[in-house]
Every structure is written in structure tokens, then in C-alpha cells.
Amino acid sequence: QVQLVESGGGLVQAGGSLRLSCAASARTFSTNAMGWFRQAPGKERTFVAALGWRVPTTLYADSVKGRFFIARDIAKSTVYLQMNSLKPEDTAVYYCAAAPSTTDMRAGNGYWGQGTQVTVSS
After folding, report:
1. Would you say residue 89 has pLDDT above 90?
2. Could you give the C-alpha distances from 48 to 69, 83, 92, in angstroms and in order?
3. pLDDT band for position 50 (50/70/90)?
4. If you placed Cys at 48, which of 36, 41, 63, 121 could pair as Cys (CB 3.0 to 4.6 Å)?
């Protein structure tokens, strides 16, 4: 079973920033694309960002382009989501994701962590 542990969530004012972290095993990190999803109360889980593991490519949802940035630290088997210029509509539980490819990830064929709450106040 793939284990993904998110951290870094919290309460922040609109316009502020947060950095989320996702710790994974070296095996998981080295054989999967990594990414982030989010789910607001009463809404379905939606894609936020992903990072390929064979080719250095990144993908972002239109709603976060230019504000959120995904990166990884290979030595620490950790993926980050830097969130800038946060908006109230960014409020959600954020889940780390791992999948064989970014295509698999967006299709729902992967694994998710327990999530970390991000709340943006106006």
C-alpha cells in the first residue's frame, strides 16, 4: 500500500501563501508521477497540479495557473505545492496523489493521502 503524508495546511488570509508538503517512500516517489488534488465541502475531488517522473513536465488546473507551483525534492522523496495569492475559493482539503503517470492520475487511477486542510479567509 502506498503511503502519502501531507502537511503544511492551515488558516491564511486572502492574498497570503502556504507551502504544502507530501512525504512518500523512495520507491513510490521514484516510480510514480506525483501531484495534488483538492476537495471542498459538498464538492467532488478535483485536480490541482502534477509533476511527471520520467520527463520534467508539470500540469496545473486553470484555476491555479500562475499562483500554485509544484516541485519535488528527490533526496527527501517529498513533493511540494507552493500556493501564492490564495483566494477564499481555494479553501479545501488538499490531497497528495501518486500514480503511474499524470494521465493515470487525472483519470483517478492512483493513490491519495489523508489530506490537509487549507482555509483562506477574506
Report:
1. yes
2. 10, 11, 11
3. very high
4. 36
